[in-house]
Here is the input.
Amino acid sequence: MEDSRVTKRESEGDGSQRLVTLGRISGLHGVLGWLKVYSDTRPRENILSYSPWYLQQDGNWKPVPLEQGRRQGKLVLAKLQGCNDRETARKLLGVPVAVKRSQLQKNLAEDEYYWTDLEGLQVVTLEGVELGRVSHLMETGANDVLVVQGERERLLPWIPDQVIREVNLGQGRITVDWDPEF
Here is the structure.
C-alpha cells in the first residue's frame, strides 16, 4: 500500500462516481479564507493535486474548485473558490473533503491499492474459511491493519506475501494466511 495509499474511508456512491474521503478541513489560516487541511494522502500534500474537492455540508456533497494550495511545514494549506474571508472559512471547519473515485490515479503498480478499493472485500483464509469483510483500514506504527468484520472483529496486519497472499479486486476477495481461531 505504501505511497499509493490515498484514503481511509469511502464516502458514498457507486463505481467511478463514488466519493472517496481524502481528509477534512481542520483549521483556519489568516484572514483571506485560507484553510488548514488534515490530509489522509501520502505524501499529505497530494490532496492538493485534486480539484474539484467535494465538501459535505448539510448532508449534501458540493463540488468546490481548489484555487491554490501549498505545504507549509507540517501543514497543508488550501484556498477554495468562493472562500475569501475568515468567516466564510470558519463555516467549513470539520467538513470532510472528498473526490470522485475516477479522479484518483488509475495506473497503480500490481501490488498497490487504494484503501477505498479494499474496503468491503471478502477475506478468506488459504483453506477457504471466510473471516468476514474489510470494514476499514488503520495505520499503526509498524504496519497498516485490515479491520475485518465477520462473526467477530479481527485485526490483520498488512504484510504482503506473509499474511496477505492475494488481492483480487475483480472477485472482491483477499486471501490471507491467517488462523481463523486467532
The first strand starts at residue 9 and ends at 10.
